[in-house]
Amino acid sequence: xxxxxxxxxxxxxxxxxxxxxxxxxxxxxxxxxxxxxxxxxxxxxxxxxxxxxxxxxxxxxxxxxxxxxxxxxxxxxxxxxxxxxxxxxxxxxxxxxxxxxxxxxxxxxxxxxxxxxxxxxxxxxxxxxxxxxxxxxxxxxxxxxxxxxxxxxxxxxxxxxxxxxxxxxxxxxxxxxxxxxxxxxxxxxxxxxxxxxxxxxxxxxxxxxxxxxxxxxxxxxxxxxxxxxxxxxxxxxxxxxxxxxxxxxxxxxxxxxxxxxxxxxxxxxxxxxxxxxxxxxxxxxxxxxxxxxxxxxxxxxxxxxxxxxxxxxxxxxxxxxxxxxxxxxxxxxxxxxxxxxxxxxxxxxxxxxxxxxxxxxxxxxxxxxxxxxxxxxxxxxxxxxxxxxxxxxxxxxxxxxxxxxxxxxxxxxxxxxxxxxxxxxxxxxxxxxxxxxxxxxxxxxxxxxxxxxxxxxxxxxxxxxxxxxxxxxxxxxxxxxxxxxxxxxxxxxxxxxxxxxxxxxxxxxxxxxxxxxxxxxxxxxxxxxxxxxxxxxxxxxxxxxxxxxxxxxxxxxxxxxxxxxxxxxxxxxxxxxxxxxxxxxxxxxxxxxxxxxxxxxxxxxxxxxxxxxxxxxxxxxxxxxxxxxxxxx
Length: 633
What we know:
Blueprint: E1 2-4, E2 7-9, H1 14-27, E3 30-33, H2 52-58, E4 64-67, E5 70-73, E6 89-93, E7 99-102, E8 104-106, E9 111-114, E10 117-123, E11 142-143, E12 154-156, E13 159-160, E14 162-163, H3 167-170, E15 179-184, E16 188-194, E17 205-208, E18 224-227, E19 230-234, E20 249-250, E21 258-260, E22 263-267, E23 270-273, H4 289-301, E24 313-315, E25 318-322, E26 325-330, E27 337-339, E28 342-346, E29 353-354, E30 358-363, E31 369-371, E32 374-376, E33 380-385, E34 391-394, E35 397-399, E36 404-409, E37 415-418, E38 421-422, E39 426-431, E40 435-438, E41 441-442, E42 445-448, E43 456-459, E44 466-470, E45 478-480, E46 483-485, E47 504-506, E48 520-522, E49 525-527, E50 540-542, E51 549-553, E52 558-564, H5 567-570, E53 576-577, H6 578-581, E54 600-601, E55 626-631
Parallel strand pairs: 3-4, 4-6, 5-7, 6-18, 7-19, 14-15, 18-21, 19-22, 20-23, 21-24, 22-25, 23-26, 24-27, 25-28, 26-30, 27-31, 28-32, 30-33, 31-34, 32-35, 33-36, 34-37, 35-38, 36-39, 37-40, 38-41, 39-42, 40-45, 41-46, 45-48, 46-49, 49-50
Antiparallel strand pairs: 1-2, 8-17, 9-10, 10-16, 11-29, 12-13, 12-17, 15-16, 42-47, 43-44, 51-52, 52-55, 53-54
């Protein structure tokens, strides 16, 4: 018997351990839910529940809830979670069956007003205690652009209409996008909507009625799995990092969730939330760095640590049509894994704006792995804001993002960005220090600028403990074995800005020339007018030679057509390891795996083993010569 940290540890015979585990498994139940069920039933396969919520009330740690085909219009508020990774509560769609959960309800009583504009009047009692048509979007870092924006929405055959700013707009002829407008009095909610060329009473018309779909009201609902569902239509609120972050589905400051193989779409703000809890300080930060520092300090006082929150797995989901973010997480995403997701059509209505919009937006991505995601048409693809430390962003495919593929904001590192395809017009907005960029393909510009007005934290290694706060001076970056592609020799001429306080944009690493410290470099290749750092060595530059890079999106599959320049064969590369990258200047921490072991970037974008002596520059190991077509998704 050994006593350690207040626990008594007893070495049990192996057969007794097996007996205990077998008893646990035998005691677990599987509950069934069917649209033909009855919540007064027992939840068995022969007498299933009617609602998922009824099964949630019954399920205990270790139990499985299997939901059968159909549409379920409800909000699931799990009253409890599991107690460990082995004894979690699993919510799953039945294998091979389509299960849809919606935060909307069907509306049929439409009356024609004029032309293609129709009106429905709904009693306020229909909405219960939450009416999204009087629920305004607001909060820290939110700008309404001088108009009202509600969490409500109107859908025609699954696709949403655009909220009109004024009543008169919805009475006009239908323009590019059909509009809707809502008005609420003491008794009723009236909605005007444009339905071009159709009678809405003969179509599927739905409106938002629920704030969220799968979200625990209380924090600390740990070890829950949500798998295989289609979840749509949620009246989610604006979710800044200083407030409770409510998603269409969200973990609400819990630990150990698995969110996998779902389709998540049409959330007014956030699709998947791994974010913080709410308190009386929500949306009271005055939009300041000091306000967010206060949020961090309160979270630490409330148990922000690895044992309490984070360590989630978000994998293989398709997330789209969210006007704030596909995945968001302030503080609560620590130690998590976000892999294999497709995220697209984020912030496309452009009715309002704020500092939280993008495909994946994480504050405090401490030891977070973001691997193998496809992110496009998402405004900003990846946005790592504050405390990206121990973060690894690897093997992601980013394109057609109107702002940039990766934005790193006031982080001090170490964080590693490797084997990514950054193919939008701007590949990287670097407003941090301590980043390592290895084996990436960047066909867009790099924007290099530092905000020296904010003191932001750096952490103890692999921890939520704050080690200190400093301003971001820039530099202290590493760039190894990357391929930078410009727009041809004529596109390589950029204004040589020398003021380090201003934004400097361009193709290649020359944008760091005016900074106070040189990046560590080696093995980089510059094509089509992209230019190296002024004192860079061991690089290859082919300013005048054509290097074609073209992406072909075929829906389920994406291909990269690329002319493999002979320069790739002459690049003087070396394998990048913990030892090569060293330690960051601010935190003094090494680039290493979350468990503290040394890392080696020895596999390419597709997982292929790299050469142990002279790996290929860019994301692909030995891709071939001349014109090549590579399947990248």
